Amino acid sequence: MWPFDFFKRDAKKYPLAAESVRFSYSEQEVLQDITLNVKEGTITAIIGKSGSGKSTFLKLAAGIIAGKYYGKIKIFGRSKVLEKHSVGFVPQEVALIPDLTIEDNIKIAGLNLGIPEDKALDKAFDLMKLLRLDESIKKKPFELSGGQKVRLNIILSLLHNPKVIVLDEPFVGLDFLNRRLLWHFLESLKKKGFSIILTSHLLTETQDHVDKLVILKEGKVFFKGNMDALKSKLEIKYVFEVRFSRLSAENLGKIKKFCDYKDIKIVDTYEKYMMISLKNQRARNTLTNFFDKLKLEYEEIGFREPNLDEIFLKA
């Protein structure tokens, strides 16, 4: 819990600050006591399993959900209603009008954001260059590829030059090249001082580009920090992968019992394959000695630092 006067003293230096936020749909509580802040010129990823509340929080912070909530959400220390122009929300769903040209889509989006048509077009042209959308604005959305539609969707959400950019699953359906292009675009905005908050299921890819991770679990903040802090919290420094020639149910049970006794966590197991989280090399030797004691034949697939996908299995 933050001090009572946090927002009076410090919140204005944060592009986005939330304190003790709770929100419910009917009888179901979706968010419980969400407290976090986003620093200027950073990329923050809010991740979690389906139903953890991550998309709900993003939509609530961006003002897309207008329902009553408890707690405080501030944009640069002010009410998010008063600072609505400072936030740009990019929805997961592509919100284009298919029967109108790109030009008309830009004009209408601009008017919805309170921007004159000429200024909306000027800003759109700048963003199209950055996102490499080299298409005639006389085309209609159905003439674009899937990746181009996603890029146009982002452009329409940023015409008012918001300093806080919120993206809900922006990489869904994009191939590797389009994802790389979008990451480069977001990183270029970060360098210019924009603050970016997003959610994504592409965890290993996300870890390489973000400054801060926030993990939601059952509507609560389970973790916030960087990868090293997450590894420390979950006590997983290495993953050890093995494949057995044969693994009976009896020996599997012995391995599980041994791991419980030694405080070694089995992250994943499938048929003859096993992934185990370890704190150090010594734990690896302890485990392989036990395999040898059971006279098991096995192949060591890897012993390495875990990626975010693998760490997330333990979260």
Layout of helices and strands, plus pairs?
Layout: H1 6-9, E1 16-25, E2 28-38, E3 43-47, H2 54-61, E4 70-75, E5 78-79, E6 87-90, H3 102-112, H4 117-130, H5 146-157, E7 164-168, H6 176-191, E8 195-199, H7 203-207, E9 212-217, E10 220-225, H8 227-234, E11 238-244, H9 249-261, E12 265-270, E13 273-278, H10 281-293, E14 298-304, H11 308-312
Parallel strand pairs: 3-8, 3-9, 6-7, 7-8
Antiparallel strand pairs: 1-2, 1-4, 4-5, 9-10, 11-13, 11-14, 12-13
Helix pairs in contact: 3-4, 3-5
Structure, explained:
The protein is an alpha/beta fold. The protein has helices at 6-9, 54-61, 102-112, 117-130, 146-157, 176-191, 203-207, 227-234, 249-261, 281-293, 308-312; strands at residues 16-25, 28-38, 43-47, 70-75, 78-79, 87-90, 164-168, 195-199, 212-217, 220-225, 238-244, 265-270, 273-278, 298-304. Strand 7 (164-168), helix 6 and strand 8 form a beta-alpha-beta unit. Helix 3 (102-112) crosses helix 4 and helix 3 runs parallel beside helix 5. The relative contact order is 0.13.
Short description:
The protein is built from 11 helices and 14 strands. The protein is α/β, with parallel strands linked by helices and 315 residues long.
Q: What are the segments in which pLDDT stays under 50 over at least 5 consecutive residues? A: none
Structural class: alpha/beta
Report the CATH topology name of the largest domain: Rossmann fold
The average pLDDT score comes to 91
Second CATH tier, the architecture of the largest domain: 3-Layer(aba) Sandwich
Q: Describe the biggest sheet?
A: 6 strands, mixed
Estimate the global geometry from the Cα principal axes. Answer: elongated
Number of domains: 2
